[in-house]
Amino acid sequence: xxxxxxxxxxxxxxxxxxxxxxxxxxxxxxxxxxxxxxxxxxxxxxxxxxxxxxxxxxxxxxxxxxxxxxxxxxxxxxxxxxxxxxxxxxxxxxxxxxxxxxxxxxxxxxxxxxxxxxxxxxxxxxxxxxxxxxxxxxxxxxxxxxxxxxxxxxxxxxxxxxxxxxxxxxxxxxxxxxxxxxxxxxxxxxxxxxxxxxxxxxxxxxxxxxxxxxxxxxxxxxxxxxxxxxxxxxxxxxxxxxxxxxxxxxxxxxxxxxxxxxxxxxxxxxxxxxxxxxxxxxxxxxxxxxxxxx
Length: 294
Prior knowledge:
- The N and C termini lie close together (12 Å).
- The protein has two domains: 6-140 and 282-292, Diaminopimelate Epimerase, Chain A, domain 1 (Roll); 145-275, Roll (Diaminopimelate Epimerase, Chain A, domain 1), CATH 3.10.310.
- The chain is globular and about 55 Å long.
- The chain has 294 residues and is of the alpha+beta class.
- A hairpin with a 4-residue loop joins strand 15 (218-224) and strand 16 (229-232).
- It has helices at residues 38-48, 82-94, 154-159, 183-187, 193-196, 236-250, and strands at residues 6-13, 22-28, 52-59, 66-72, 77-78, 102-107, 110-118, 123-124, 128-129, 134-141, 145-147, 167-171, 176-179, 204-209, 218-224, 229-232, 254-259, 265-272, 277-282, 284-292.
- It has an 18-stranded mixed β-sheet that branches. Strands 8-9 form a two-stranded antiparallel ribbon.
């Protein structure tokens, strides 16, 4: 029997216009997920060859619409991905696939929620609010930061092409945070991807505080060749760690952050230290839709 075609959308997340932010392929599976085995899921992610391909399967019996959500890079499955979760919620909300302002995702990192929030700040024409314009707010677990496990940063400095490193932290998600002295040093960094690939873990986040007078609080870039992604255009889960780091440095819990990759992306972040949760808010736009026939 021929397999049923799989509907998909390609969504640019943490962006309000096409070809910016971080693209994710959002694929909708029916209840017979077992006929699409893991090698097929991973092969499709490699075929899309973008930073994340995710798979949604509906789950019945919850107060809010709920879906099983799995995330795959071109090389492996991961336990947490912010931009593909935002892309999934956008695909559901913008295509009328859920009759709710809240959707839940059952994931390897627990139940994650996404909330549709109207954007009342953008106007066009005669001053009317753009009906299609809305934010999505994700509720994610905080990723704790701790002291770097090695006192030798020479390998890290080599991977970052000799960049000055003013602080180093390790995340519980096995990612290294390297703090550089300025926004410009992050923006202009030309890392050695082959050297980053040799460092144990899931990659390196480089970050710096924004200059005085900026609307932003900090910037970042994320390199993860170990996951098949030389540079992730905008990484939501990385900001679950960055929020923890910068809250301790800046003594605040609300941030406006910019990921200064070539595509770029903006995130609004709130950290709740008591509940150890991070709210990530951003926009998305659908750029492609189609069917997978195999």
